[in-house]
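#structure-requests
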Amino acid sequence: MTVTATQGSASLAKMLQILELFSETEPVWSTAAILEALETSRSTGYRYIKTLHEAGLLNAVRNGHYTLGPRIIEMDLQIRLTDPLLLASQGVLEDLVDRIGHSALLCTAFRDSVLCVGECRAPLSPENRFSRGQRRPLFQGAVSKVILAYLPHHRLKAIYARQRSEIENAGLGGTWSDFRAALGEMKKDGYALTVGEFNPGVYSVAAPILTDQKTALGSVGVAWDENERRDVEVQQAVLAVKQAATTISERLIEK
């Protein structure tokens, strides 16, 4: 790669960092705050903002202040209509909710985390539960851990090298061998079960959505509060979730 190409890639990455600034707690950013966060020159920062604004990825809400732009909404609609994972899950999450009576989630790996991409809520489900567009750590919760267990060996090695302490703190092993053994148990079972990792008394069961190479593309999971739903049979939930994940996996492979 030439020096010019390398500089161009670095410049593009820097510009895209602007989009990472926006969050639910900080949805509006001023030009001055963006420039300060980027730690770049004013002329370069202004150019980045102008480019993103013209592309519809930023929207000017008042003088010198921006939010995420309308093009992102348009792209989200396109994803909802065309994403293979979402299309393969159509009807499956709904059937899962009907079968066992609590909310179902569809998730996929994103960087060193897991992103919820689809959901079907059971009646009276709490509003604050994990939902589409939200991320969770890769080492906590059933929907995350079961994806982790089925990632390719080389990717697991890279993750372990970067986040060894987080893995140990999550109870997944203090050494590479222990980590691999913990994930191996999940693979042998074909599902993950956690209790209280995000909320006390909340059970979570998840199974992997697999490619034809048997690596994880995502996961299907359900969760329920033992204090609200004492009628839930864990093994019934495990079987239903594994069947749902298998159905989605088969649909994706057949495409």
